[in-house]
Amino acid sequence: MTKVMQIKDIADYDGEEVTVRGWVYNRTGKGRLQFILLRDGSGQAQCVAFKREMAPDEFEIARSLSQESSVIITGTVRADERAPGFPGGYEIGIQRLELVQQADDYPITPKEHGTEFLMNHRHLWVRSNRQWAILRIRATIIKAMRDWLDDQGFLLVDTPIITPAAGEETTTLFDVDYFGDTAYLAQTGQLYNEANIMAFGKVYCFGPTFRAEKSKTRRHLIEFWMLEPEIAFCSLEELMDIEEGLVCAVVERVLEKHPRELAIIERDTAKLEAIAAPFARISYDDAVTRLQALHAQLDDPQQRAELAIDWGEDFGSPHETALAEMFDKPVFVYHYPTAVKAFYMSPVAGRPEVCRSVDLLAPEGYGEIIGGSERIHDLDLLAKNIDQMGLGREAYQWYLELRRFGSVPHAGFGIGIERTVAWVCGLNHVRETIPYARLLNRKYP
Question: Given a cut of 80, is residue 132 above it in pLDDT?
């Protein structure tokens, strides 16, 4: 009986008759010999149609196949080091071919297409080799994160997507009509995670988050995915240890599992191979001093304008890039000014103008991929912050109540999946890191 095979396993079937089902990525040849590059989602294999080895009607089908036509091919696997594809080195000599559907003229061809054209056809663009490779790496990054946390004793606890209050800035909330009442799409699952740690100790949530942020930078999406761990009885220093371990495990898994995908996207893996603990840890104070010293050395007016910074200001992309370039691995920047961080971040003892916060900046200009902090566990201080920011206590009553029943020091962070994928893959823009990007000017397809 003929075995149905996935192309990724082709080496296991050398000399055997198999059936593969997929789509025509390319077809070349003429006369009695046709070469069909077939993809099935797991890989690509060259399938060879030789006229004298096939029924005449099926060979004619092979000659007329258009790009992305769907077919079922039965034939014999044979080793050939010249054979293209993934994993390559093997081809299939076609004996039988069944046409499932002859595709219309495919709009994405080997010629160059503009980014907007490709984004408008994103539902088709995901079939291309580069996008196939990126999205497979994305899946591995997510699984590696969850596996590592599971192995460290964290519990996945889902948090709501519709919430009554802001988790971050109120200016970036998406309103939702909740049966005549106003609710919002979640900016974070963190507040609910803080409730969950009181039951489970160490938890994480993973899901989509939303920011109505009118930004067109290469690092921003309107809808993006975050993984957010939260830990009871945890200090900022312990939190950085956890972040460090997670990131190293992710990079190691990608390097181990995806050499061919990294080759397809032409990623310089030497830079990823350098990622190992420990990561440098510098304070915001130190970071500002470093940036100001760099600023003083610059002659270019534009660069000077981009890197100008006074103590108390938040970092923009140029600042994060400049800081990261000072190190060959990710770098922690901790103790940011309280005024530029969220209302729930714990102040530094003796320095209320600074909070127990930390960002992890990725190398190669990719900026912040993780943001975290120790949370305020004192009821009065948290209530005071909520009042001072004009957030209104009513929507946060349940959150404040957590500080009345066994409150403990705790900390947590959020890691953005798309920014992490962009860094690991070496991509210029986050729009390629997610199957269907939601940008300021894009909600289709």
Answer: yes
**Cα separation, 417 vs 434, whole angstroms:** 9
pLDDT in tens, 314-365: 999 999 999 999 999 999 999 999 999 999 999 999 999 999 999 999 999 9
239, 358 Cβ separation under 8 angstroms:
yes
Cα separation of 49 and 46, whole Å? Answer: 10
Long-range contacts formed by 145-152: CB under 8 A, 24+ apart: 145/206, 145/227, 145/246, 145/249, 145/250, 145/415, 146/204, 146/206, 146/227, 147/249, 147/253, 148/245, 148/246, 148/249, 148/250, 149/204, 149/227, 149/229, 149/246, 152/202, 152/242, 152/245
Is residue 386 pLDDT above 90, yes or no? yes
Identify the residue whose tokens are 């290469």: 218
- Distance in angstroms (rounded) separating the CA atoms of residues 105 and 88: 27
pTM of the model: 0.96
Residue type, 383: A
